[in-house]
Design goal:
The chain is mainly alpha-helical. It contains 13 helices and no strands. The radius of gyration is 19 Å and the shape is globular.
Length: 310
């Protein structure tokens, strides 16, 4: 009964807070400049859309922490909150400078790496760090660097995926559903999954096409941190691979594009990440989003079943 009430409360509060936040952003013109090198589709509409919806994730996570405060919950929420604050700083700089660029990429990456390194070390010291239950790793010398790299990678992968209405948020909900078969669903994880699911669902209420708000770097960094924290803190670091299936594909497409342009002076995709490639080919945004979500659901479940049965 308590879990049901928490779910209803999180969904309702997320919708109410998001609605009020959207009204405030519109009144204060808190929108984000569109990238000049973007797909140039619906630029006028998207440039007028409030772009820091992820701020409500930070608020809801603080509520979650207050509802069930413990050292374990504090450690869990610290990663998405700190990651979200990095994203918020980036979003705020974009707004203040009226450009599509906030933090320099290198400066943002350095801060991300510091946060991820310190957080993973805490998990290691607590003795919760592992690649997967049953996989022996003497001293954690393999799990430690992999957890660090995969945590930082997940944050950036979700950020890269956030480019279409409903894509990153919808994919995150699918990832949470897949986590139900990958990690032990004890009381703690059950409450975390419930809170994350319904706060994201409340955001998606306004983010589905045509979006009334975007999550911005604040939201994408937060969700990436939350997904990584769920996997790593439960000693299931490798669960990031199936749970983050579409996020990994999107990040790889960007990496491939950058490599081939710099080293071979040619493009593999019309534009990266991959969802923009299909937009450039003339696919409707909703069609791309739905197909990517379907691929994510199928790929994530298949990989999860493969890992479990190995």
């Amino acid at each position: 009964m308590k879990r049901f009430l928490v779910a209803v409360m999180f969904f309702a509060l997320s919708i109410i807070f998001q609605y009020l936040w959207i009204k405030f952003q519109r009144r204060e013109h808190l929108t984000q400049q569109q990238k000049t090198y973007g797909v140039n589709i619906d630029v006028e509409i998207k440039s007028k859309t409030p772009s820091m919806g992820g701020v409500i994730f930070l608020l809801m996570s603080l509520i979650a922490l207050c509802l069930d405060f413990s050292l374990k919950s504090f450690i869990f929420w610290s990663l998405p909150i700190l990651s979200g604050l990095v994203g918020f700083t980036d979003d705020w700089l974009k707004f203040k400078t009226h450009t599509s660029e906030g933090f320099s990429s290198l400066a943002k990456l350095k801060i991300q790496l510091i946060i991820c390194a310190l957080w993973v070390i805490v998990i290691f010291i607590r003795g919760d760090l592992a690649l997967w239950p049953g996989i022996y790793d003497a001293g954690g010398w393999l799990a430690l660097p992999l957890a660090f790299l995969m945590t930082a990678g997940t944050i950036n992968a979700v950020n890269i995926t956030d480019g279409l209405d409903g894509l990153a948020g919808g994919a995150f909900l699918i990832s949470l559903a897949v986590m139900l078969i990958l990690i032990p669903v004890d009381r703690f994880n059950s409450e975390i999954l419930t809170e994350l699911f319904f706060m994201t669902a409340g955001f998606l209420f306004f983010n589905l096409r045509p979006a009334k708000t975007f999550m911005g770097d604040t939201g994408s960094h937060f969700l990436g941190g939350a997904l990584a924290a769920l996997c790593v803190m439960n000693g299931h670091t490798l669960a990031i691979i199936p749970a983050g299936f579409i996020f990994i594909i999107e990040m790889l497409s960007s990496a491939i594009q950058i490599f081939t342009i710099r080293k071979l002076n040619k493009k593999v995709f019309l534009m990266a990440p991959l969802h923009h490639h299909y937009q450039k080919k003339g696919f409707d945004e909703t069609a791309v989003t739905l197909r990517f979500l379907l691929v994510h659901a199928v790929g994530a479940v298949l990989l999860a079943l493969m890992i479990i049965n190995c």
